[in-house]
Amino acid sequence: MKSAIFVVLSIISAEAAKVHNITVSGTVTCAKHRQSNVLVELWERDIGGPIDPHDLLAKIHSDPLGEFRLAGEGKEVGLPPHFCSLVNLGTIEPFIRITHNCSTKEGCTRRTEFDIPQQHVNGQPYDMGFIILGDVQAKDETTCPP
Q: Sorted alphabetically, which PANTHER family does this protein's record hold (predicted)?
């Protein structure tokens, strides 16, 4: 009986999953200079960890002018609207992760994350404009070799 309920719920969940899309563009800079060949990734935030890791939607390296444009889509299970508004479920939570070495010690790497506003999910592309990598952000992590 329990396995039958699990199968039915799995089918309902799969059918209720809605595809959401997001497009993001911008220009990466460091010390007032455009940065080429910088890794830019578009992610969808989940609970995290081994149970529900974040989903990589797209990745690209910035072009010679430091510009990038990414588009991706992700699925989230649709829930009743009154429940979704209470716990912010039913839509994707996209963010950009940029891996660079701006304002770091030699050999170190920084990983900087920027949340994408919800109004751009399934809407107009989000133009981040000039992204100044030298500024420390709330979600900023530096890794250096030992």
A: TRANSTHYRETIN-LIKE FAMILY PROTEIN, TRANSTHYRETIN-LIKE FAMILY PROTEIN-RELATED
